[in-house]
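ARCHIVE RECORD
Type: protein–small molecule complex
Small molecule: S-adenosylmethionine
Source of inputs: curated submission
Record status: active
Notes field left blank by submitter.
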Amino acid sequence: MSKFGDYWASQCGNPRGMIGSIMTWAMNRANNVMYHGMIEHMKLSEDIKILDVGFGNGYLEKLIYRKVKCSIYGIDISKDMVKSASAKNKKGIANGDIHLSVGDCCNLTFENNSFDIVATMNTIYFWDDTIRGLQEIYRVLSEHGVFYNAVLTKESLDKVFYTKNGFKKFAPKEYVEMGKRVGFKNISFSDLGEKYGLLVIYEK
Ligand SMILES: C[S@@+](CC[C@H](N)C(=O)[O-])C[C@H]1O[C@@H](n2cnc3c(N)ncnc32)[C@H](O)[C@@H]1O
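STRUCTURE (tokenized, with ligand):
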């Protein structure tokens, strides 16, 4: 694989500097159908608490908060993304509703049963330990909480040159197996764009 491909993959998994900002901006546009599709599935109301894992430049937070003024927490391993996402979500942060910080989904610092919804988009490929990340999400979800995992299908990822290294790609069957392994009961799928993205919905 080319050096450029490796570099781009590493920016996807941990966006940094000016290039990271450009890449996440481009992602916002390219994956618009995925953000909106995921939000349509969420049962949003002002009294719920959401965690977004790997928020990138905070576009999902902005869209959710525009729709419903609920409580939104987010963690991302990239310090630069915490800065960009905070700039994008000034109003929600000033209102005390949006809380963004550096964090790793394989080691969450939240109490058990803290969130009604956990969401993540295009991040599971990069977690160091996928099962550990899913266990952590299960732990912080409240009873009957829902985890929305928006991903590009394995076929879509395979079409892109920079996903050869640095991306863990899973088939639908594997998403189900891993979810069951950590305790999720009902696991279902919804299309996010025809044969493009997939929303894996895990119920606790
Ligand atoms: C491809 S970007 C997607 C950003 C955002 N979810 C979106 O769709 O606009 C992947 C993001 O996941 C973050 N990330 C990768 N591994 C992570 C981990 N273990 N815990 C938290 N965030 C992680 C990266 O820093 C990056 O911001």
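CURATOR ANNOTATION: The first strand starts at residue 49 and ends at 53.
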